[in-house]
Amino acid sequence: MATAHRHTHKEHEGEALAEAAKRSLEEQGERWTGMRAEVFDELAKHTRPVSAYDIAENLSKQRGSRVAPNSVYRILDIFVRGNLANRIESANAFLVNSHPGCRHDCIFLICDDCGAADHIDDDRVTGALREAGRDAGYSDVRPVVELRGLCAECSR
Fold first, then answer.
1. What is the DSSP string of 102-118?
2. DSSP code for 89
3. Tens digits of per-residue pLDDT, 14-59?
4. What's phi and psi for 4, nearest 5 deg?
5. What is the C-alpha to C-alpha distance for residues 69 and 109, in angstroms, rounded to an integer?
6. If you write DSSP's letter for every residue of 88-156 in order, what string do you get?
């Protein structure tokens, strides 16, 4: 029986993360454009969930011209569908997926004090949710589980 665990597969960072994301997106038949690379690089800079508006604002400053939040949202939607990023629903924010191309369901842990986010896998929980969705007649069920509380640092 599966239990909660931290990821044991290859996690990327820096240039290797961007290359893995590019490769994964292209393998899915999507293009890796300059704007998508910029959005991904900006997203990857953040260790906490970041909004599309913050990404658009930061890119606007870097470029010296306005980047529309709607454009960033469209790109982030592609990244979520392609498993390059995760959406933190309760915060309407996004986190980079440090292991692009690896399909699994995450349980997100979000600190109500500092905003830190972490994730674990627990196939017992997500498997039960997938099964419940299928039993209700849904297909392609993708569980999104978020737990809010205080991280170890803030609960001291």
1. -----EEEEETTT--EE
2. G
3. 688 899 999 999 999 999 999 999 999 999 999 899 999 999 999 9
4. -65, 140
5. 26
6. EGGGTEEEE-SSTT-----EEEEETTT--EEEEB-HHHHHHHHHHHHHTT-SS----EEEEE--TTTT-
